[in-house]
Amino acid sequence: MKGLLLAGGSGTRLRPLTFTGNKHMIPIANQPILFYGLRNLALAGIREVGIVLGPLHEGIRERVGDGRDFGLAVEYIDQGNPRGLADAILCARQFLGKDPFLMYLGDNLLQSGVKPFLDTFAAQRPDAVVGVTPVTHPERYGVLETQGDRIVSIAEKPAHPRSNLALIGVYVFDNSVHEVVRGLSPSARGELEITDAIRQLWQQRGHVAVLHVDGWWKDTGAPEDLLEGNDLVLNSMPATSFVREGTVAEGAIVSGNVALGAGSVLEGGASVEGPVVVGAGVRIGSGTRVGPGTAVGDRVELRGCSVRRSILLEGARVLGSVKVESSLIGRNAQIEAVGPRDQEVSLIVGDASRVRL
After folding, report:
1. CA–CA separation, 274 vs 256, rounded Å?
2. How many domains does the structure of the chain reveal?
C-alpha cells in the first residue's frame, strides 16, 4: 500500500497573500498541519509516500526532506496548476503504479488516524474505501447519501444536500481508479472531481465501502477551522507531551498542561493556563496571561497582554494591555495597544503586519 498526500492542491481557502508559503505548513499545536498527516500514514504502516505539490509549496521539501524523520520514503510530485483531487491521481500515476493507495488531503486532522481505512480495505477488498462523518454545513463538502451500508447518491458541494454525511479527505483506492479518472471531464468548477471518480466506481463496479469515522475530524481550510483544530489537538495531547525546558521565574503561575521550549522565559507575575504549547526562545513578560487553548511559536514576545484560544506564529509580538482571543497572528507580526483596552479582540493578522489598537 502506498500513500498519496496532497499538499498544495485545489480548495485553498486561505488567501495566499495573508500568510506566506503553503497553508499546510501553518502550525497546529506548534507542528505544521502536514506533519500530522505524515505521522498518520507512518503509524498505519505505510512506508512509501508521494507528496503532491501545487504552485505554493515553499518549505515542504525543506522541512520534510526524504521523509526519514517520519519513518517514510517520500517522493515529490509536481501537480503544477491544480485541477482537482482526481487530477492529483493522474499526476501521480507513475509513482502509484499498480499498487492500491491511500490518498490523504494534507490539511485534514483526524483523531483516529488512517489505519481503520486500511483495515476495511483488507477485510472487504472493495474498489474504494471512503470515510464519512456528520457535519453542520454539508454544502461545503462532498456529500454521501446512504441507506444502511448502501450508497444512494454522491454529490460535490451540493446547494441542497440530501444528507449531512461529509466525505472526509481520506480515501483508499485499488488500481481500478486510474481508468476512471482518465475518463473524467471537468465539472462546472473546472475541476476533475474525486466525487465523480467515486460515483463512477460505485456505478460501474458496485463495491465502494463506507467507513463512519470515529473521533473528531477537522478540515483546516479556513482560519476558524485552524483555531478549532488547534483546540482539538491540544486537548487530545497526553500530559507527557507537555515538556518544560525553559525557565519559570519565581512568582510566575503555571497551571494545567503547559509545554515550554528551550530558552523560553516565563517572568514573575505572568501566568499560563493549559493546555498551552510555547516554542523556543519565547519571552512572556510580567502581567501577561496566556491560555487556555493557545499555541505560541518560536521567538514570540508577549508583554502585558492576554492571549487565549489563539495561534501565534514565530516571531510575533503582542505588546500592551490588549486582550487577544480566537486569533491567528502571522510570522513577525506585531500587535500593540497604545492605551488601556478592556474588550477582547479577535484578529486574523498576516505575516509581518503591524496593528495598533
Report:
1. 4
2. 2
